[in-house]
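Sorry to interrupt, but I need a hand with the structure work. I would like you to pick a protein and set down its sequence and fold. Please put the record directly below this note.
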Amino acid sequence: MSLFEIPLGPQHPALKEPIRFIFKLDGEIVVGAEPRLGYVHRGVEKLAETRTFIQDVYLAERICGICSAAHTTCFVQAVEELLGIEPPPRAKYIRLIVFELNRIQSHLLWLGILAYEMGFDTLFMYIWRDRERVLDVLEMITGNRVLYAINQIGGVRHDIDDKIAAYMRKALSYLRERTKYYKGIVERDPTINARAVEVGILKKRDAIALCAVGPTTRGSGVKFDIRADDPYAALDEVPFNVVVYDTEDVMARTLVRIDEILESISMIEYALDHMPSGDIRVRVPRVVPAGEAVSRVEAPRGELVYYVRSAGGEKPERVKVRTPTLANIPALCKMLEGAYVADIPVIVASIDPCLACMDRAIFVDVSKEKVWVWSERELRRYSLRWYRSREGVRRR
């Protein structure tokens, strides 16, 4: 067997964000994949240490614009645990509603991108057109379409009145029928079946061994969902089914997300029907007692984990974020093995990767065995020196 290696990325056809792979190929078959991360590190965790807990709510939201509700929910839950407070019941229901609306728009966005990667541009445009209905609802509730700024420590910033609820029910009814229609297309279309069925195989044992999360692992028959295993918000009161498929391929991961859209619609309708009355937030102190807390939620891509430590003050001592894409990279490398080169974009897209939200970086001097981090000010100072030196080179 004669193997050769080819690089793919950092810019490549599957993603708009940069990641680099070195693929080992036997002809057109991938026999090994080695990822190279770190092209879009933004220093968010270090920035969180320089801002107050209240400011960090809005910083966390900017880790990922597609699942911003997941990040703020996870962060405020950790801080609320440190404070020893509980948000009002109505606030929990509103958090759940916005979170599941966020899941619907994320899954629709992903489904459209998957169609695009398969060359099905018409389906891509139809799905994204219908996704606008969800964004309209989110805008009515929060005033924003991407970064919702709905969560705050101790509750939520906006209530849901009868007018918004009526509009939401109408939009969800429309989306339920459209989602069923798209599921029929996915199951019957020969092009989609050729690109998705028995492509990107991730065996159940490998999904467990490699600690895959979210629809990636549920598409391999693993019933793992934080909403059921460790309920948050009002999930202990709102019934839903954990969607699992066992064909272990791109098609399974696609159907998991489509069915989750339908489950989310039912969850939101139930929450609207059983919404408790009362306040939507409680007053909280600015100073957070010393301690540490771990919070996790089921983001659209899978398990999202926040670790927050306080030394007793208005700013956190440490904020650590483990995003689902990072957890799924080992599983992605496994599912690429045995695939054709032409299937690489579809398989990479099947985990719904978000690279900007997972990249972390530290400085390492191998010769001196030294490891360190920089503050925002130090990094800015270094970047200015670097660009000025490059400007001098260009002038010469």
About this structure: Residues 42-328 form a domain with the Cytochrome-c3 Hydrogenase; chain B fold (CATH 1.10.645.10).
